[in-house]
Amino acid sequence: MIEYAYAAVLAYLCGSIPFGLILTRLAGLGDIRSIGSGNIGATNVLRTGNRPLAAATLVLDALKALVPVLVARALWGEEAARIAAIFAFLGHCFPVWLGFKGGKGVAVMIGSLLALSWPVALIFCAVWLLIAFTRKMSSLAALTAAATAPIFAFVINDEWLAGTVAVMAIILFFQHRTNIQRLLAGTEPRIGEKKSA
């Protein structure tokens, strides 16, 4: 069991690195938490108008999940990799350094899925892109992709991966709870708008 604890701690610490906050500060854009949704993820970084910075945040947030999951698998096996995926996700959403107020987890979920099952990750991205481009709503795209991901994980892999993905999806829904309220109210802003998400 000790190896599972190692995997969890490693993944949480990696996942809790606030790349969106770090990059925007280095770019002289101030504290990303003071604009838009106050989120540290790529979608909110995009609201600064700096697309390269948002893209860099997306990639780094995915990598901070992908790397510890791959390391956990190499050192301690597949179960440890699944544990690492969940804890990298928790680290991003609830980073201890930021008072447990982090991002919403989309990029981290992609990174975890790439490490656990790349076909499921590709389907997740395809669903996200389809909804994002047709409806222009990042939150709706994320919620739809997350809701369907456990199904594809079960079909393509097994119930263990499906359960892992379902845990991440539930947390992602929790992190998007205010977005869900706005979606139901018809007040959710569209991608690229510089106001609350």
From TrEMBL:
Describe the function of this protein.
Answer: Catalyzes the transfer of an acyl group from acyl-phosphate (acyl-PO(4)) to glycerol-3-phosphate (G3P) to form lysophosphatidic acid (LPA). This enzyme utilizes acyl-phosphate as fatty acyl donor, but not acyl-CoA or acyl-ACP.
Which membrane topology term applies here? Multi-pass membrane protein
Q: Where are the transmembrane segments?
A: 6-27, 53-76, 82-100, 107-131, 151-174
UniProt similarity note? Belongs to the PlsY family.
This one is known as Glycerol-3-phosphate acyltransferase
Entry's Pfam families? G3P_acyltransf (PF02660)
Superkingdom of origin organism? Bacteria
Q: Provide the protein's localization.
A: Cell membrane
InterPro entries reported for this sequence: G3P_acylTferase_PlsY
Q: Can you state the subunit structure given in the record? A: Probably interacts with PlsX.
Catalyses: an acyl phosphate + sn-glycerol 3-phosphate = a 1-acyl-sn-glycero-3-phosphate + phosphate
Write down the PANTHER family for this protein, in alphabetical order.
GLYCEROL-3-PHOSPHATE ACYLTRANSFERASE-RELATED (PTHR30309:SF0), INNER MEMBRANE PROTEIN YGIH (PTHR30309)
User: Which pathway, per its entry?
Assistant: Lipid metabolism; phospholipid metabolism
Enzyme class, top EC level, equals: transferase
Q: Name one GO molecular function term.
A: glycerol-3-phosphate O-acyltransferase activity
| NCBIfam families for this protein | glycerol-3-phosphate 1-O-acyltransferase PlsY (TIGR00023)
Q: What is its main location?
A: membrane
Q: Which HAMAP family match?
A: PlsY
EC number, as in UniProt: 2.3.1.275
Keyword annotations for this protein, in alphabetical order, are: Acyltransferase, Cell membrane, Lipid biosynthesis, Lipid metabolism, Membrane, Phospholipid biosynthesis, Phospholipid metabolism, Transferase, Transmembrane, Transmembrane helix
